[in-house]
Amino acid sequence: MAFTSSSSLTLPLFNPKILPRFKSLSLSTLPITHSPLKLEINSTSTCRATQDGVVFDDAAYEAERLSLDAKARESMAEQAGNENDDDPRAWKWVIRKRVWDLMEAQNIAQFPRPVHHRIPNFVAANLAARKLSELEVFGAANCVKVNPDSPQKQVRFLTLNSGKKLLTPQPRLRTGFFSVLESTMLSPSTINEACTSVGVAKYGRPIGLEENIKVDLIVIGSVAVDPKTGARLGKGEGFAELEYGMLRYMGAIDDSTPVVTSVHDQQLVDDIPVDKLLIHDVPVDIICTSTQIIFTNTSIPKPQGIYWDKLSPEKLSQIRILRQLKSKIERETGQKLPSGPSEKLPPTARREKR
């Protein structure tokens, strides 16, 4: 699931410590690597950025994102319904559905709803984000990679508001790879928008696989997580694992890079079988809820890169950056990389009107 600009989270005031950076802010001082950035206001007061003659259409971008998100969630729902007991992933869907059902039944979910086939946006996600921001590893981090989902929107805000570099992927990697945002690229009036998918596309600096970057902390969304083992389940699309694998390939992270998740207390489970986890599943070191911080001391090995033999042709065809990477490695090594088994790609669900 992708984060939205319509989230109902209450964000704290902009950090006054970094306000002086913006006193003399003008478009000419923005860190643009190509032609100057121009801003236009259309008839509906939508801000559109043009660079190299390309107009950024907020409404069109968001409409396409929501459409693709809906198709993906419908596909996931269908896939979950077709799982059988012989499928090695069937047990994951049982746990996911139980957590999603519980969150809806107890009304501990926030927009977008229903939470099924999403990284669920949970009540008090902003308080869990505050707990996360109090971590020593967060305070010491210069660059934080944060997932693009709704419950971590406050984490993205606090990252920028603390003067840190924010690395976030385009939703489902469908339009690109990662984008980098920094508070110096923004103004007090745009920092909130920069925490949304539209804002990332509008204000972020896209990076490629050749970028020399060091990520000090990874924040990841979860559907369910075991506080005793650090075992984690996402929504079932595998993008967190792919993003982690690509960062390993880039040398941006290693085994020592902390992985943190923020969840509701009701997303804590004790029945994720560690012996059934796959080699690319990413465990978490720290769990933050609105009430507690849990250090898992996980012994589950972290993925070492991208496992091409697990990546289906269908998934590969969806993600351009992965196709480019595979072609690059094959050219450099002169050897063809393996492919995983074919699969029917996961789906999506519809958002309720607000």
Brief summary:
The chain has 354 residues and is an alpha/beta fold. The protein has helices at residues 58-82, 90-105, 125-133, 136-140, 153-161, 197-203, 239-250, 313-318, 320-333; strands at residues 38-41, 47-51, 54-55, 143-146, 165-169, 178-181, 205-207, 217-220, 224-225, 232-233, 259-262, 286-288, 293-295.
Plain-language structure description:
Pfam families: 5-FTHF_cyc-lig. This is 5-formyltetrahydrofolate cyclo-ligase-like protein COG0212. InterPro entries: FTHF_cligase, FTHF_cligase-like_sf, NagB/RpiA_transferase-like. The structure is a single chain. The protein contains nine helices and 13 strands. By secondary structure, the protein is of the alpha/beta class. The strands form three sheets. It has an eight-stranded mixed β-sheet. A three-stranded antiparallel β-sheet has the order 1-2-3, with no helix packed on it. The chain has a two-stranded antiparallel sheet with strand order 9-10. Helix 3 runs parallel beside helix 5. The longest helix is centred in the N-terminal third of the chain and has 25 residues. The N terminus is likely disordered.
